[in-house]
Specification:
InterPro entries: Nase/OxRdtase_comp1, NifE-like. Pfam families: Oxidored_nitro. This is Nitrogenase molybdenum-iron protein alpha chain. The strands form 4 sheets. The protein has a 6-stranded mixed sheet with strand order 1-12-11-10-13-14, sandwiched between helices. The chain has a 4-stranded parallel sheet with strand order 4-3-5-6, with helices on both faces. Strands 8-7-9 form a 3-stranded parallel sheet, sandwiched between helices. The two termini are 21 Å apart. Helix 9 packs parallel to helix 12 and helix 14 packs parallel to helix 19. The chain has 488 residues and is of the alpha/beta class. The structure holds iron/sulfur cluster (SF4).
Length: 488
């Protein structure tokens, strides 16, 4: 599938990949519909709350250490930046970086701006961002309001180029355009690809590692060093210079297929940097596959095999013990698609039975044109798994969890995981994307699961004292009452 970096914006996932946010069935049925081209989205006639691609783009870009973000929007659209700031500061602290706030400004669009436009405000905000932060690049993120009134952001930035000597890059990520917040990642990466990445001048031993703000950087750096490679962790905590030179790397690899697919495939198509198309490195099967595919690309198969054997031998005893203790426990997984499929597989490796999987959208294919490797792997498994797709509609999951009553809920978003806890279900929120990363990570995760299952006092006490906002009427309905018929 050709990616066009000549265009100022990337199409949303619904239009580009055929992605959906409404489905109920099983993982096998979902896979069969994709291969039979009969996958259609189901709408909902009621929606509680969700997230937005604009917040997703601006928060991700705000992690670049020497860039600034100007959010051309009403102030409320920057509300998520408080959370991004808190995450960024934690990451700065553990990496020994300067402990400061993220470089983000909002243009505070108000009602009269929707009538008269706010280009002057935007230009002032870009000037102020340059004065205040002295960044190496400024990203301007759009919003529903700036998009709907048709603000000419490209011209506004063009008019500032003589005045401000750093890349000024628009990021078209209006929330209303896509129901899938991951479209915001694509918008952020499109801006990096079109405004920051330069053609290669040489080849390096670096591997672009697309991730969020999590841990495991030291382990990955040490592991890649065994193969003669160096990671460029991106985008959070990378620099504009590092991003500009990603075209010189020997490969691109991602901790999350949903996150990394657009950048990885675009860099491969534009500059020939191979993108590792593999399972993600959670649990044994994922790590084996991730490393072996990287090893093939860089010609280090033997070194990779030696590392895999060494690590597996090291954890074999503890893994067997964990499997014995976790066997037969029942879990529900609810996450973004790549992670949902990944953690279903990882929990199965620990002996946990997955009685329901839910993903917050579903991509039938990535920008390579291939369907996600994580889904293919689940389709090959012996068990079919009940599965649903929703843009994190908490009311639906609460109804479902109340009926299924699993031993454990595993999520990646606090806005959902906290409700499972309030329902009295032991829950784990996987905030750090390197949870269960690699072989030792699987063992550590297994003990965390065991801990959640055996120390239930907090969950019991909390659920006994909380009054849920959902009525008995709703809890007695079919969980998917508001999911409508398929639409084209
Ligand atoms: S959906 Fe639109 S109005 Fe709401 S936060 Fe996102 S960009 Fe702003």
């Amino acid at each position: 599938m050709a990616i066009n970096l000549e265009l100022p914006e990337v199409a949303i996932r619904e239009n580009r990949l055929g992605s959906i946010t409404g489905y109920q069935g099983t993982i096998r049925d979902l896979g069969a519909r994709v291969s039979g081209c009969s996958l259609q989205n189901k709408g909902r006639c009621f929606s509680q709350a969700s997230a937005c691609s604009s917040g997703c783009a601006q928060n991700y870009l705000s992690g670049i250490v020497d860039a600034a973000v100007v959010n051309h929007a009403p102030i409320g659209c920057a509300g998520d930046s408080a959370g991004a700031n808190e995450q960024d500061k934690w990451g700065r602290k553990v990496r020994g970086l300067e402990y400061r706030n993220i470089n983000i400004l909002n243009t505070n669009m108000v009602e009269e701006d929707t009538v008269f436009g706010a280009v002057a405000k935007l230009k002032d905000a870009v000037r102020e961002a340059y004065r205040r932060f002295q960044p190496k690049a400024i990203f301007v993120t759009t919003s529903c309001v700036s998009g709907i009134i048709g603000e000419d952001i490209i011209s506004a930035l063009d008019e500032l180029r003589d005045e401000i000597p750093v890349p000024l890059t628009p990021v078209f990520c209006e929330g209303f355009k896509s129901q899938i917040w991951a479209s915001g990642f694509d918008a952020a990466f499109h801006a990096i690809l079109t405004g920051i990445v330069k053609p290669p001048e040489k080849k390096t031993n670096k591997v672009n590692l697309i991730n969020f703000r999590g841990s495991a950087r030291q382990q990955i750096t040490a592991m890649l060093a065994r193969f003669g490679l160096e990671p460029v962790f991106m985008v959070p905590y990378s620099s504009i210079d590092e991003l500009a030179r990603t075209s010189e790397s020997v490969a691109t690899i991602s901790i999350c297929g949903t996150l990394g697919g657009y950048f990885g495939n675009a860099l491969e198509q534009q500059y020939g940097v191979p993108y590792v198309k593999a399972l993600q490195p959670h649990g044994i099967t994922g790590t084996d596959n991730w490393l072996r595919e990287l090893g093939k690309i860089v010609g280090k198969e033997a070194a990779v095999e030696a590392y895999i054997k060494e690590e597996k031998d090291r954890i074999a005893g503890e893994l067997a013990e964990l499997r014995g203790k976790l066997k037969g426990k029942k879990a529900v997984v609810g996450m973004g698609p790549s992670f949902a499929h990944d953690y279903i597989r990882t929990l199965q490796e620990l002996g946990v039975e997955i009685i329901w999987g839910a993903s917050w959208h579903y991509d039938p294919q990535y920008d390579s044109g291939q369907s996600p490797e994580t889904v293919q792997h689940l389709l090959e498994g012996t068990e079919d798994i009940p599965f649903s797709v929703a843009d994190q509609q908490v009311f639906e999951m609460m109804n479902l969890l109340n009926k299924l009553k699993p031993d454990l809920y595993i999520g990646r978003h606090p806005g959902m995981t906290v409700w499972a806890t309030k329902l009295g279900i032991p829950s784990i929120m996987i905030g750090d994307e390197y949870t269960a990363y690699g072989y030792q990570g699987l063992v550590d995760f297994g003990f965390r699961v065991l801990d959640a299952l055996t120390n239930r006092n907090f969950v019991k006490k909390l659920s006994a004292r909380v009054t849920l906002p959902y009525t008995d009427w709703w809890m007695e309905q079919d969980s998917f009452t508001f999911l409508q018929d398929e639409v084209g």
